[in-house]
Amino acid sequence: MRQLQDKVVWITGASSGIGEALAISAAEQGARLVLSARRETELQRVRAACLNPQNVALLPVDLTAFDAEALAARATSFFGPVDVLVNNAGISQRSTVLETKMEVYRRIFELDFFACVALTKALLPGMVARKRGTLVVISSVVGYVGTPLRSGYAAAKHALHGFYDALRAEVWRENVQVTLICPGFIKTNVSLNAITADGGQHGVMDAGQLHGMEPAECARQIWAAVAAGREEALIGRKEAIFVRLKRHLPGLLSYAIKRAKVT
């Protein structure tokens, strides 16, 4: 695939996992990249792994506290207007509703929802003016199906679907593409980095992630969905069954989720 040739692609959460794999794949397709995450040393490692690292700019940022307009201006200063924004940065959760502090919920929403919205709004006027642009939003299967210990994470991902479905209906005539990506179990550190009831780090690799799809294959499927102009894409080996059950047999799915061993 070379659909990203000479495109300017800005990826958040690019220091590991899905974001890293998307960056490496996009570089192979000839994209010019702007990579963002908190850890600059990890971004440097990802840049070194990319083809033509001279076409990879680093823009470290904490997306829980930032100026979206200023950050977007810096992103465009490297290679010009951003053609593709990949809102990938996020954090998961491992705690019950009874235990979880409100500041934890607010932290999840700041990163998983409000940061995406803020960056989208900062770049959207330029995309509309140019009559082209692509917004890729990394949601989750949990954006369809809420599960125990992930109430805040599920809520933020559900919110992404509502916002970007509405946005798509507003801007499709302006040739702005909105693609929601819903991965299932991917072999990343998402469970290790998940936050607990008091905001601490979970620090445990869940079995689902450990045996999940390789990030490189996930990235391949994501870019294929974007190239095909898909509005939504489920990425995973078997996880799509949960979405189908939610639509067609919700009672059965509810029964199963209530009794599932969730970590």
Automatic annotation (TrEMBL):
Keywords attached to this entry: Oxidoreductase
Q: Where are the transmembrane segments?
A: none
A GO cellular component entry from the record: membrane
Its name, as the record gives it, is SDR family oxidoreductase
Residues annotated as domain Ketoreductase: 7-189
Query: In this record, what's one Pfam family?
Result: adh_short
What the entry lists under InterPro entries is as follows: KR_dom (IPR057326), NAD(P)-bd_dom_sf (IPR036291), Sc_DH/Rdtase_CS (IPR020904), SDR_fam (IPR002347)
Molecular functions per Gene Ontology: oxidoreductase activity
> What is the organism of origin for this protein?
Stagnimonas aquatica
